[in-house]
Amino acid sequence: MCGIIGIASEKLSDRKLAELTVEILRRLEYRGYDSVGMASMSEDRIEVRKAKGSVEEFVKKRSPSTMKGKVFLGHTRWATHGEPSDINAHPHTDCSGEIAVVHNGTILNFAELKNDLIQKGHEFKSETDTEVVAHLIEHYRKLGMDNFTAFKRAILSIEGDHAILVVIKGDPRIFFSKRNNPLKIGVADGMTLISSDSWSMFMVTNKIIPINDEEFGYISARERYIEKFSGERVDTNSRLYTEDTESLASSHEGYESFMHKEILESHLAVRETLRSMMRETEIVSKAIKSLSEARRIFVVGAGTSYHAGLMFALRLQKAGLTSIPVIASEHHYFRATEDDAVLVISQSGETMDSLIASKHYRANGARILSLTNTLGNSISHESDIALHTRAGPEVGVAATKTFTSQVAALLFLSSNLLGEDVEYLKEAEQTVTNSLQAMGYALEIGTQLCKKSNAYYLGRGLGVPMALEGALKIKEIAYIHAEAYPAGESKHGPIALVEKGFPVVFINLGEFVGELSNNIKEMSARGAETIVLSINNRLSDNKELKVWREVSVSVSDTRLAPLAMAPLIQAIAYYAAKCKGVNPDRPRNLAKTVTVQ
Amino acid sequence: MKAVILAAGRGENLLPYTEKEQKEAIQVSGKAVVRYVVEGLWKAGIREFVVVVNDKGKQIEDALDGIDASMEFIRQVTPGISGAIRDGMERVDDYFVLAFGDIIAPDNFYSELIGRYNESGRPVLSTVPVYEGLDTYGLVKLNERLHIVKEGSTLALAGAYVLPKGEFSEFLDYLESIADRAAYFIWSGPWVDVGFPEDLLSAIENLLNRKDSFISNRATISSTAIIGKNVVIEEGAIVEDYAILKGPAYIGKNAYVGSFSLIRDYSSIEEGAVIGAYCEVAHSLIGRRAVIGSKSYITHSVIGTEARIGASAVTISYPAALKRKGERKFGALISPGGELSHGSLVGPAFRK
């Protein structure tokens, strides 16, 4: 995900236009925040200024308000190819510097295109996939095509989802194209804007022309032209509509909250994560080799990442490998040696506890691997092998789609490590989608838990880390005190608290079902309200268990069970928060990235 | 893009109330049910409406009066829901919005629908997570392609769609036939499908939870009245001495609340209704110009437009009946213009 903006104006002064571009970039920062850049086109040249970091840092370092021109492009980046750096920031240009491109998406066939272009003599400055678009257009223009034709040819030769904006020196138009990533035109007096979302343009206009998938075209200050990839012209006037200002102001691209949006995007996050794991064979096989040669594997994480790591460690332990899960802040009591490997898991890659643990183990002489969701973060810099989930930016403070993506990435790694066929992961995306179908139950259970002040989450086997994560989610989002235990442990103490109406959520991944049923019976017998989240089986048919409510989701392979469970426990917490009327995106006392010890 | 609004149902689950008043025209917290739908779509940018009505079409026209948009009211000729949709569809060109006129949801519901269409250029199905009444309506299953099913999902069709014009005899079959190229969204906000009398009470909860307190400068409120949180009082309303409005509650235009009466917990007193002295009204909808005699107790009830409840009438809401798998209390449903004599004792689940 990235944010892109283009503005063509005949009215505003250069300075005003530059400032407007910056202001819109601030509003697009939620779509990516690791680097920022702008291009401006005046009569004689295209100027590009860009920098690693936030919009604020960009403004300080590059003073964009002094840029000249009547056409501006802007970009706020979430790195997927090439780590965040000044060079990799957008806009990207061709060899001549006459074509500038901003892009949100990935170009799947960029490696081939790039090789091809290098053979033809093009010189690349960055490691990004985006830069090939600039060179492709340059190439087609050299063949004698006019600007729009060259642009269209370039677009039709790239594969993958995108929203792209291009400016070409001497041409007052901004060329655009869209396939599956958002892009909208905003129409104002003497000015046309084009942006990733309508909210960002809201201060200038709420007159919107939507662009559908597989369409391209161009805008200038007064002109808006759209055609389908198939060549059919679109009547732009009939599409023009006025978006309601109230709903614009309160929406997150139409979703009620970022957390809701991010849970519902989990299947895409998992798909992208696994795609990239399968594509980046070199680094992944290096990682697998390193883990398989290790005497012991330490798995380090904090909070949600620890739970993902715990699941990974348990899977390896069960297969006879020595794998030790470590809560990052408690690393002191786990000493590694030179023949050990350490896998550090962190969404942001900046978690202070995990970073310190990683340094500690590096000092022990162990080999360090990392799994993070951003490129170029401190933890990946500290590691010998840096792996990445590709969940995209997550705005909600509580980890949702990033957790599910971590689980998917770790399933991929563990299966490779254990010599399993990874064919079953082809069903991963569908598994997560299936689980979204059970949202109605999540709503009912969340609404029920919302009335309670305490809850237990119990599971066995891989259900334990899931129970821990479920309890954490409902604590942090809905402020309901919840404790997780291995179900067998519940009778060694915790059961003392259980009385009539006490909610107990059982995570039933299909393992140790007999034992788990006994635990349910024990709880029901004491009046607990037992809620069972089941994969591939149904326990409530056994009336003796007196299950209050059961959700059963099926998966094609039991190893996929955690991927079906993750969105469920997240949605339960989400609906509990909604029922309480608290904002799930901003839980009190919590920060997205914990950079203190 | 045009929107086709369906407001021609028989309202069977609200009989006999709906013999007199069209379900979509029932006023809840100051607006008719259908008006919430049309205004929601208006805010999402829709300016042309085709409203399918039946012989009570005039009520719907009145309910939608004053909306700055093109409104075409057409009388349903083909029977059934599918028929109403087909009748409406004759008035549209290509892609159109189809909205059921009996859904109460915030405006964002409609902007999300239109937004999703703008984003994708494909048909869009709205869905809501449900756990009650799973077997009552079409559900959406998210396999490799979307499917419309009767079971196997908890995502119900939510009553607002963007669809291409097409030929069909059954609406759900039509949805299934376009589902493979459709986009969808899962709505997690408030949403009520008004079918049963209890749904009107849920609608009040839903609406009042979203309203901030508001007291019109042109309302007359006695200095000894007590007004709690989350209370809306519209212009011309009169609240007499020692009345207690314990929110959430809605007091419509020119409504009257007599001395020592208690209006509490999600009650909505519509325009021009009169609550006599010493009454208690809880979880109830009191229709326009309805009159509640003194010393009455009205709970979990719907009192129709211009109905007259005598003095000392008592509604009973318990024991609750089992409705759509959930237990829901309900007292009395009194049709528009209906009467309850002095000293009546009615309920639970009384209908007249």
Overview of this structure, please?
The complex is a heterodimer of chains A (597) and B (352). In chain A, the strands form 4 sheets. Chain A has an 8-stranded antiparallel β-sheet with strand order 3-2-4-1-10-9-11-15. Chain A has a 7-stranded antiparallel β-sheet with strand order 5-6-7-8-12-13-14, with helices on one face. In chain A, helix 12 runs parallel beside helix 15 (401-417) and helix 18 runs parallel beside helix 20 (561-580). Chain A has 20 helices and 25 strands. Chain A is an alpha/beta fold. Chain A has 3 domains: 3-248, 4-Layer Sandwich (Glutamine Phosphoribosylpyrophosphate, subunit 1, domain 1), CATH 3.60.20; 255-420, 3-Layer(aba) Sandwich (Rossmann fold), CATH 3.40.50.10490; 437-590, Glucose-6-phosphate isomerase like protein, domain 1 (Rossmann fold). In chain A, strand 13 (224-228) and strand 14 form a beta hairpin. Chain B is built from 7 helices and 37 strands. The relative contact order of chain B is 0.11. Chain B folds into 2 domains: 2-195, Spore Coat Polysaccharide Biosynthesis Protein SpsA, Chain A; 198-351, UDP N-Acetylglucosamine Acyltransferase, domain 1, CATH 2.160.10. The longest helix of chain B is centred in the first third of the chain and has 14 residues, at 107-120. Chain B has 352 residues and is of the alpha/beta class. Chain B has an 8-stranded parallel β-sheet. In chain B, strands 5-4-1-6-11-8-12 form a 7-stranded mixed β-sheet, sandwiched between helices. In chain B, a hairpin with a 2-residue loop joins strand 32 and strand 33 (326-328). The A-B interface holds A 182, 184, 208, 210, 212-213, 215, 239, 241-244, 246-248, 250-251, 253-256, 260, 264, 430, 433-434, 436-444, 574-575, 578 and B 1, 43-45, 107-108, 111-112, 114-122, 129-131, 134, 141-144, 152-156, 185-186, 188-189.
